[in-house]
Amino acid sequence: MKSFIIGESGGTKTDWRIVQDGSVISDFKTESYHPNNWNDSFWDRIKFFWDKKALYEMEIILYSAGCHSISNKNTLASKLTQIGFKKNSVHSDLLAAANSTMKSKGVAAIMGTGSVLFGFENNQICWIKGGEGYRLGDEGSGYYFGKLVFTDFVKGRLTSNQKEDFIQNCPDFISANIDLIDDRSRISEIALLLSVSKEFQAYHKTNIELFLTKEFGQITNETIDLIGSYGYYNSSLILEVFAVKNIVIDQFIERPIERLVEYTVALSD
Questions:
Q1: Confidence of residue 1 (pLDDT cuts 50, 70, 90)
Q2: pTM
Q3: What is the C-alpha to C-alpha distance for residues 146 and 219, in angstroms, rounded to an integer?
Q4: More exposed terminus of the chain, fewer Cβ within 10 Å: N or C?
């Protein structure tokens, strides 16, 4: 199987690669396939998109956030079949993260739009800590950073310098009310928009410390791999905070998709 379509879907977007004879010939992004987005309008948009691509004869492999449960996997696989992909397979974003490490066994953390800590072995997820979703947690994620900052902006708790940077870099959020907290995609954008600012390091550190305290618990002296853009772009601070528990980061992986292509091609050899 050296020719296939492969997608890695997080909380806000999906990265796609079309692979032919073992080489990537096309790449693009679409909206997220997370179950929170599923409705009739979503499936209509997805079918319209893939109808234009006219690639239904290829196998499609999709790793998606929110699809760790068998029920959600089966639902998404069934929808892909109905759309026109007769040959498809659906996996969770946890397995995408695990496979992207190119290891058969280990511990990994996702720190992207959402966050989770888990162990894996032989293509199976063995245990999970966190991953309850943004309404119940997601400390250590881009969303949670945005939530912390936006809440303090609305409540007037930012310093004058922080407020100035927020207004300059996040103009679309200035007139929004606190209810926007429930818009995971929008709030997650704040982490990217404020990545140019040095005024919010304390918020990043608090966010990372909350993740370490909540999900690692008594775990110490462990080597892990860390996957996700939020973690990747805050790697220096994460190394500093995690050192308190002697947690060593072996790899920072910004996006799993390239590794997943390599992993899937290698399986077919």
A1: low
A2: 0.89
A3: 27
A4: C
Which is it for strands 60-64 and 4-9: parallel, antiparallel or unpaired? parallel
Beta-bridge partners for 107: 119
Angle at 113 between CA 79 and CA 83, to 5 degrees: 10
- The class of domain 4-96+257-268 in CATH terms is alpha beta
Name all contacts of 79-84 with Cβ < 8 Å and 24+ positions apart: 79/43, 79/46, 83/43, 83/46, 83/47, 83/50, 83/56, 84/47, 84/50, 84/51, 84/56
Block residue for tokens 């308190």 = 244
SS3 115: strand
Helix residue ranges per DSSP H, the chain: 40-53, 70-83, 93-100, 142-154, 160-169, 184-193, 201-211, 229-233, 235-242, 257-268
Report the topology of domain 101-136+203-253.
Nucleotidyltransferase; domain 5 (3.30.420)
Tens digit of pLDDT for each residue in 109-167? 999 989 999 999 999 999 999 877 777 789 999 999 999 999 999 999 999 999 999 99
Q: Rounded to an integer, what distance in angstroms lies between the CA atom of residue 62 and that of residue 60?
A: 6
Phi-psi region of 126 (alpha: psi -120 to 50; beta: other; left: phi over 0): alpha
Residues of the chain with CATH 3.30.420.40: 4-96+257-268, 101-136+203-253
